[in-house]
Amino acid sequence: MPKTIVAGNWKMNLTSRDALTLVKILDNTIESKKVTIVLIPSFTLLPAVASVIPSRFSLGAQNMHFSAKGAFTGEVNASQLQDVGCSYVIVGHSERRHVFGESDGMVNKKVLAALAADLIPILCVGETAEEKDTVDAVLKRQVETGLASVTKSQMKKVVIAYEPVWAIGTGNTATPAEADSAHGVIRKIVSSVYDVKTAESVSILYGGSVKADNCKELFKQKNIDGALIGGASLDAEEFSSIVADA
Ligand code: PGA
């Protein structure tokens, strides 16, 4: 899989008809073959999107439960995601952490369960506005705890997304230098837990108000390997243009 990844997190948007139209337009407008493209719709849209998604795009889910099965009303497990054709799953998105109270420990269980089911977890980390002064410590805790018990060989199947909470859906993107520095911190943490080679090969995506008009500078940064896009991924023209620049 190409190391450069552009993933569209559609969040709680679209119905199946709109989703199918969006996939069709993306298929017609996206030409790049050097980028891994991941489309991440709501659970209910997964079967419809899976039935039309071209094989050059991958399908992902926005969340999952860490248990294999059981009495967890309203939850979805990793093998159910596999079953509908997902190969990626977002884990620990800031909206899950801050709106739904997911802890680092829960996020870690999800990472391990995703890997066990052969899904690629996109582990999201990032500081809140209040944590800006302690960003390195926040990233260290989130990355180290999130990856606890993940082996070096499993790291080949892990993607990390740096998404400063204050930048998500706000229009306030981190500057390219700020983002690159945080990605560098994450790479150092991965290097100290595993080794330099693992740190160099892991894909680290930036997320938080990425748009067609600010992505170029972000993608030029040494430590930025792609993007996790929310709002702009619902607009076919914006998303295609971001992929073209990646
Ligand atoms: P945004 O969301 O692009 O709308 O800021 C990014 C994300 O939450 O993954």
Fourth-tier CATH superfamily name: Aldolase class I
Strand content: 15-25%
Please identify the top-level CATH class: Alpha Beta
Number of domains: 1
- Integer average pLDDT: 96
In the CATH classification, which architecture applies? Alpha-Beta Barrel
Briefly note the CATH topology name: TIM Barrel
Number of DSSP strands? 8
Return the string of H and E elements. EHEHEHEHHEHEHHEHEH
Notable features of this structure?
single chain, 246 residues, alpha/beta, TIM Barrel, 8-stranded parallel barrel, 10 helices, 40% helix, globular, binds 2-phosphoglycolic acid
In short:
By secondary structure, the chain is α/β, with parallel strands linked by helices.
Describe the structure.
By secondary structure, the chain is an alpha/beta fold. The protein has one domain: TIM Barrel (Alpha-Beta Barrel). Helices cover 40% and strands 15% of the residues. An 8-stranded parallel β-barrel has the order 1-2-3-4-5-6-7-8, surrounded by 5 helices. Helix 1 packs parallel to helix 10 and helix 6 crosses helix 7. It binds 2-phosphoglycolic acid. The site of 2-phosphoglycolic acid has 13 residues, from strand 8.
Helix and strand topology:
Blueprint: E1 5-9, H1 16-29, E2 36-40, H2 46-52, E3 57-61, H3 78-83, E4 88-91, H4 94-99, H5 104-116, E5 120-125, H6 135-146, E6 159-162, H7 176-193, H8 196-201, E7 203-207, H9 215-220, E8 226-229, H10 236-245
Parallel strand pairs: 1-2, 1-8, 2-3, 3-4, 4-5, 5-6, 6-7, 7-8
